[in-house]
């Protein structure tokens, strides 16, 4: 455990953290490339921070204008409100995304951003959407675009995630509950209202 990281901060980094960090560092994107993060939730709020700290031009995509200030606070240089704007068209205006990190659990939302990928761009799927993604073949062929999934990582990847987070100041936003309130914590998590990770502490 690196110095400067508490157990409460480290816990989500060993799950949501390693998934987003590892996906980004293996994405093929280089510093200066445009990387979009679809969704600002448990995975997305970490993905935005990692992308910004890795030197990518970070674009956050979410539903609603109200999430814009948070996205910029986390490190995004651009924010796209997918309720008011066509996210693919907005990404094209920015020159296209080298990578879109899809942290949402909506196949429809993922499909809606594929047209915003640049030449050789990749959609990296982290969110387990119950419905399938529907992609026109010509959209993939014409731009040599691809879709890939990413699970998590190994123990050394976890160590790298913690070290990078400690070094760059990436931190999860947690709601902390004592162990005896585990049912309340679980209920909050399942309601989708947790902001953004729920951590139990043992005293």
The Rg value, from CA coordinates, equals: 17 Å
CATH superfamily of the largest domain: NAD(P)-binding Rossmann-like Domain
CATH fold-level topology of the largest domain: Rossmann fold
Number of strands: 8
The share of residues in extended strands comes to 15-25%
CATH architecture of the largest domain: 3-Layer(aba) Sandwich
User: What's the CATH class of the largest domain, please?
Assistant: Alpha Beta
Helix content: 25-40%
Supply the number of structural domains.
2
Identify the strand order in the major beta sheet.
3-2-1-4-5-6
Helices and strands, in order, run as HEHEHEHEHEHEHEHE
Specify the structural class.
alpha/beta
Mean pLDDT: 95
**N-to-C CA distance:** 19 Å
What does this structure look like?
The chain is α/β, with parallel strands linked by helices. It folds into 2 domains: 7-149, Rossmann fold (3-Layer(aba) Sandwich); 173-203, no CATH class. The chain contains 8 helices and 8 strands, in the order H-E-H-E-H-E-H-E-H-E-H-E-H-E-H-E. Strands 3-2-1-4-5-6 form a 6-stranded parallel sheet, sandwiched between helices. Helix 6 (137-143) links the parallel strand 5 (117-125) and strand 6 (146-149). The chain is globular. The relative contact order is 0.18. The model has no long low-confidence stretch (mean pLDDT 95).
Fill in the keyword field for this structure.
2 domains; Rossmann fold; 6-stranded parallel sheet; about 200 residues
């Amino acid at each position: 455990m690196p110095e400067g990281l508490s157990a409460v901060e480290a816990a989500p980094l060993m799950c949501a953290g390693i998934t987003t960090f590892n996906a980004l560092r293996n994405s093929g994107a280089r510093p200066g490339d445009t990387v979009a993060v679809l969704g600002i939730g448990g995975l997305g709020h970490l993905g935005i921070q990692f992308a910004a700290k890795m030197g990518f031009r970070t674009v956050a995509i979410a539903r609603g204008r109200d999430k814009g200030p948070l996205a910029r606070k986390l490190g995004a240089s651009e924010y796209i409100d997918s309720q008011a704007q066509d996210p693919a068209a907005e990404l094209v205006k920015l020159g296209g995304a080298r990578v879109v990190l899809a942290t949402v659990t909506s196949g429809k939302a993922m499909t809606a951003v594929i047209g915003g990928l640049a030449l050789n761009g990749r959609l990296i799927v982290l969110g387990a959407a119950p419905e399938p993604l529907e992609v026109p073949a010509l959209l993939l062929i014409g731009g040599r675009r691809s879709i890939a999934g990413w699970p998590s990582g190994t123990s050394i990847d976890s160590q790298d995630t913690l070290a990078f987070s400690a070094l760059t100041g990436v931190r999860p936003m947690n709601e902390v509950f004592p162990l005896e309130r585990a049912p309340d914590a679980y209920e909050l998590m399942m309601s989708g209202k947790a902001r953004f990770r729920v951590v139990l502490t043992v005293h």
